[in-house]
Amino acid sequence: MRSLFTIGLIAAWYSSNIGVLLLNKFLLSNYGFKYPIFLTLCHMLACSLLSYIAIEWLKIAPLQRVRSWLQMLKISALGIIFCLSVVGGNISLRYLPVSFNQAVGATTPFFTAVFAVVMTAKREGWLTYVTLIPVVAGVIIASGGEPLFHLFGFIMCIGATAARALKSVLQGILLSSEG
């Protein structure tokens, strides 16, 4: 029963991500909505509300209290970077097709590896770096052949992808040092 619940959560997570992505693209491109930052606000409010419901009502996870100002600063830094990644992603959707946006997003492991080396001096095995070459090369090739390529949209998409990777690395650094 527990594994069925987990599968349901994973399916809900994928479905909601795909739904939000396609809805944002529809609103920003097809419908002519010009406020990607407002969409980010709606995203953040929905995440907060659903998290509250999951913690307080459904008891999926225990409520965690912030224990210090330092912990609050760490959490706030992660929240700001996450918000910037969502803003960048939403802005890029206004200019780029969803398929190209997702292809660029596939470079997240590359940025994660770069940030990990720069910020923690942690190096992976050479095979890890070699496997990133076809991914980055594929995005470069796709960028050159994308008929609806838009430079500003591409820059925002790369920025959003880098911000997601930065959040991931910072999360490992910041949240592991204090209980």
TrEMBL record:
<keyword id="KW-0812">Transmembrane</keyword>
<feature type="transmembrane region" description="Helical">
    <location>
        <begin position="126"/>
        <end position="142"/>
    </location>
</feature>
<dbReference type="Pfam" id="PF03151">
    <property type="entry name" value="TPT"/>
</dbReference>
<feature type="transmembrane region" description="Helical">
    <location>
        <begin position="99"/>
        <end position="119"/>
    </location>
</feature>
<keyword id="KW-1133">Transmembrane helix</keyword>
<protein>
    <submittedName>
        <fullName>UDP-uronic acid transporter 3</fullName>
    </submittedName>
</protein>
<feature type="transmembrane region" description="Helical">
    <location>
        <begin position="75"/>
        <end position="93"/>
    </location>
</feature>
<keyword id="KW-0472">Membrane</keyword>
<dbReference type="InterPro" id="IPR004853">
    <property type="entry name" value="Sugar_P_trans_dom"/>
</dbReference>
<dbReference type="InterPro" id="IPR037185">
    <property type="entry name" value="EmrE-like"/>
</dbReference>
<dbReference type="InterPro" id="IPR050186">
    <property type="entry name" value="TPT_transporter"/>
</dbReference>
<feature type="transmembrane region" description="Helical">
    <location>
        <begin position="33"/>
        <end position="55"/>
    </location>
</feature>
<dbReference type="GO" id="GO:0016020">
    <property type="term" value="C:membrane"/>
</dbReference>
<feature type="domain" description="Sugar phosphate transporter">
    <location>
        <begin position="9"/>
        <end position="171"/>
    </location>
</feature>
